[in-house]
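Entry for guanosine-5'-diphosphate complex. Fields follow.
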Amino acid sequence: MFGNLKDKLTKTRETFKEKFEEFLRSEKSREEILEELAESLVLADVGIQSTEKIIQSIRQKSKKNDSFIVLKKILEDEICKILSQFPTYFNLNNNHTVIMMVGVNGGGKTTSIAKLAIRYKKEGKSVLMVAADTFRAAAQEQLELWGKKLNIPVIKGQYGADPASVVYDAIQSFKARQSQLLLVDTAGRIHTNTNLMNELEKIKRVISKEIEGAPHETLLVLDASIGQNALTQAKEFLKFSSLTGIFLSKLDGTAKGGSVISIVDELKLPIKFIGIGEEEKDILHFSPQEFARALLS
Ligand code: GDP
């Protein structure tokens, strides 16, 4: 798993590689190293605020004549510390678990739902998916296609129907089938933002009324390939009250993998899963330790 993650983070890692080799060869002072390290972190989209915090911490925890190897280990620990601030545990212990997925269209929501669906189906859970974006026929069709491919049932509503009523119907079916995991795909048209947030709140109310303690998780799907812009998008969704974590999609092939750090640091939410490709198998449970190691190794 570590090898796979390391491989997918190649582009981001390359941002550090040149500098790291230079540090190892040369006799730079701690301040020179920290200055150039800060530059590399910003280039990898770690964000100014988080970069400053990391560099400040390294300065406090290191001695003036510490070697690059020592500084790098402190850097890895600092990144790991930031990423571990919030538990990455995924709440799936209930027999009737409902997971709501939210996020901007095109961010990878439907694909990420399919990835979760097959992951838990393989673990022996009976899974049901509901396409609650009733205003985008393509979104519903796409989830249906995934359902066919993975052999997982999909509930969808009429075009233009109230998404909350589609979810209500799906919950009745979920109960009748005695399924164990319901994954709810939602709309992501950010330009009608207030309406969207109201719609999401309404869906959430329906879910919690029908199943106690649900939704057990509400994941915001963010696209890692847009780096710091993902933070701006995410801030809109913070208005929606019940987010429990992030599914960070498209971490493969991006040089902006450093954004993971500021996403956790600034949004104050854990990353629970990462998407590392377009296929259903391309999903990893997020491990702060492994991520920090893969980023810098
Ligand atoms: P939605 O509109 O938010 O439901 O987004 P989709 O699930 O339709 O995904 C949009 C595009 O991103 C599609 O082309 C997906 O194949 C692609 N995609 C989703 N997740 C990943 C990922 O982890 N890695 C890569 N490389 N592409 C992804």
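NOTE: The first helix runs from residue 2 to 8.
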